[in-house]
Amino acid sequence: MITDTHAHIFWNNFDEDRLAVIERAREAGVSRMLVVGTDLETSKQCFELCAQHEGLYPTAGIHPHDAESASPEILAEIRALCSREDCVAVGETGLDYFKEYSPAALQRDNFRFHLKLARELDKPVIIHCRDAHADTLKLVQEYPGVRGVMHCYTMGVEELPGYLEAGLYISFSGVVTFPKNVENRAAAAAVPEDRLLVETDCPFLAPQGKRGKRNEPALVALTLAHIAEVRGVETEALAIVTSANAERLFAL
After folding, report:
1. In this structure, which topology does domain 2-250 adopt according to CATH?
2. Closest C-alpha to 213, from 205, 221, 222
3. For 65-85, what is each residue's pLDDT tens digit?
C-alpha cells in the first residue's frame, strides 16, 4: 500500500482521463490519496470527487497564492468544509514568497486562520512553504501542539529541526529525485522514520525520468523508491511505513 498525501486531481488537465489516472494509481499500488483543495471552488471539488471513489480523502483550504481573495465569507465556507467529518485536514495553506501572488502580510493572516482552525478542530494542517522558511517556522511556533505536515519539503537538513520539534511530519515529492537536489535528499535520509511521508503534488513536479510531463498519483511510487534507496531500505518496507504514518496523521 502506498499513500499519496498530496494530489490535485481535480485539476482541469485531468478532466479527460481522471478515471484512468485513478486506475493507474491503483495498479501502481497507490491505494489511498489525499485530494487537496487550494481555494473554495477546488475544495468543494475535492469533496465531490472523493465521495465517488474509495480511498480518496478531501481537504479544504486557501493556498497562499489566493490569500488576497480570502474574504470573511469565503473563510466561513472553508471553515464549514473543514468541520465536516469526511475532511481529513485543513489546507493547503502556508507562505509563498517566491512570486508573492498575494501580499506577504495577507498570506500570514491567511496562514494564521488555518492554524487556528486546525487547532480548534483538532485536525492536521497541510503547510506550503516556498522561500519563506523563517516566517513559516515562526508562525508554526505560535501555535504549539498543532499537528500537520510540511508538504513538498524542498529544503535541506539545516531547516528540519524546528519543524520536527513542532511535531510536524515531512513529506517529499518528485523534487527529491532531481539530480541537483543533494541537500533535499540528505533531508529525506535524515527525517525520522515515523515522520516521513510521500506525495506527488500532481499535476506538478513529476519525478526524474518523467520531468516535463504531467505528474499523477501512480508516479509517487518512483519517488518512494528513490527515497528508499537514499535511506538504504526496501521500497516495500518504506511504503508500509509511510502509509502507516499517513493513516496516523490524517486518521484515514
Report:
1. TIM Barrel (3.20.20)
2. 205
3. 999 999 999 999 999 999 999
